[in-house]
Design goal:
two-stranded antiparallel sheet; Four Helix Bundle (Hemerythrin (Met), subunit A); mainly alpha; 190 residues
Length: 190
């Protein structure tokens, strides 16, 4: 088993009591737990995207020319946000059965989305789909196998993947914000 599959296997075992229990309360607990995680990462990601000033939305660490860094060819901040939103759509769509939005040709999102407001709208729409997808999770269908990128994965694995993928990109967004001179909203004094 590779590391990613091992992680998902262990994660699925963590949710096994909810999956195998026959009571409605167990299935509701699984959806509630996933919804809580999605709401949390959605707030962090959207707040971070909104915090980046429009004039720096195309910032990339490559522009800093840090000697010894490995920033050549990395996505801009805007491209990070579009990629995350695109993958949200790709990951959540199999759970809901909804088609991918028009204009998505690859993992980088629709090229016609250029402005900060268009990209943030696309991001928010992707999280809206995520909430609908999580609402479909039940104890009875959590291990149902769904087609995803040429393979099949359990429905619950796709939910976990979407949540961890969003968290990974949130971390990158925080670094971009700090490197461009913006304190991430979650790090600001309350």
């Amino acid at each position: 088993m590779n590391t990613v599959r091992t992680f998902w296997f262990i994660a699925a075992l963590t949710f096994a009591p909810w999956i195998s229990a026959s009571g409605q309360e167990s299935a509701a607990s699984m959806s509630v737990a996933c919804e809580r995680q999605l709401t949390s990462i959605e707030k962090a990601v959207v707040d971070a995207a909104e915090a980046m000033p429009e004039e720096r939305f195309d910032f990339t660490p490559e522009s800093l020319h840090v000697r010894g860094s490995a920033c050549t060819g990395v996505r801009t901040f805007a491209e990070q946000v579009k990629h995350l939103a695109t993958d949200n759509f790709a990951i959540w769509s199999p759970l809901t059965g909804e088609p991918m939005p028009a204009g998505i040709k690859d993992v980088n999102g629709p090229p016609e989305l250029k402005s900060k407001s268009e990209i943030i709208r696309f991001l928010k729409d992707s999280f809206t789909l995520g909430h609908r997808a999580i609402a479909t999770l039940t104890g009875a269908n959590a291990l149902e196998m769904l087609r995803f990128r040429g393979s099949t994965l359990p429905r619950l694995d796709l939910a976990f993947y979407a949540l961890t993928h969003a968290s990974d990109h949130y971390g990158q967004m925080v670094v971009y914000l700090r490197l461009s001179g913006t304190v991430p909203p979650a790090s600001r004094p309350r």
